[in-house]
Fold this protein.
Amino acid sequence: MVATLIVLLWWQLTEFLLRCREFSNYVRKLSATVCRGLKLNEIVLGGE
């Protein structure tokens, strides 16, 4: 009984951590894209 509970908790934790990692990767890609877009706008608007 206790072993089953521990396994379930462990499974939930690993699932949660995997989701967090995927989400943080998504956020990192998104912010990199936004930064790139802002730099392009600066170049276009700044006329450098």
Q: What stands out?
A: The radius of gyration is 21 Å. Residues 7 and 13 are 10 Å apart (CA to CA). The helical segments are 2-46. The chain is about 95% helix and 0% strand.
